[in-house]
Amino acid sequence: MEWIHLFETWIWLGFAATGFAVLFNVPPRTLWVIFIMGALGGTLKLICLKLGINIILSSFMGALLIGFLSVAAAHLRHSPPFIFAIPAVIPMVPGAFTYRMMLGIIRLTGENDHTLFLQLLQETVDNGLKAFFVLTALSLGVSGPMLLSRNKSTKEIRPSKFLTKLFGSKKASD
Q: Which residue, 50, 64, 139, 37, is CA-closest to 94?
């Protein structure tokens, strides 16, 4: 039953990424790649959360996967990597934490009881910091692989050369 739920979530994450891609008017030939990248990145985040990894590191790992896949997809589909990465990572944006933070700010303005005010302030700051750090992890995870491969244009990067550059050559390890 858990696999069915994971597959259903995978499908919805892909549709969300594709929806944002359509909203951003990306080329239609890239939509299926964005669907797969959004589904894989979001699913990796959810699997990491199930394994007990915190949400910030889980989001970073999902975004890092999307970042590496976008560099490879840019080469294969002859498009800039951000066309693939940005719509694919948007479904992982922490909307719930941001919403709770905004509600907390609104509720803080009308709270008169000192103990309730401090508790509400703590929850609001906690939700705001989680949203901030998840957004930071998403941006670093997506942009990191692109910055590593930036010395040449994406058309000149071959996935094998990129991996050799990233992990070192065989001669260097001998």
A: 139
Coil, helix or strand for 53? coil
* Pairwise CA distance, residues 71 & 96, whole Å: 29
In the chain, the number of structural domains is 1
- The tokens describing 160, both together, are 């094998």
What Rg do the C-alpha atoms of the chain give, in angstroms?
Answer: 19
One-character DSSP codes across 69-108:
HHHHHHHHHTS-HHHHHHHHHGGGS-HHHHHHHHHHHHHH
Whether the CB-CB separation of 66 and 85 falls below 8 Å is answered with yes
Which pLDDT belongs to residue 174? Answer: 43
pTM (2 decimals)? 0.79
| Tokens read off for 28 | 């239609």
69: nearest Cα among 17, 104, 4, 121: 17
pLDDT at 55 over 70: yes
How far, in Å, CA of 65 to CA of 42, rounded?
10
- Kindly provide the b/e burial profile for residues 140-155, where b requires at least 16 CB atoms within 10 angstroms of the residue's own CB: ebbbebbeebeeeebe
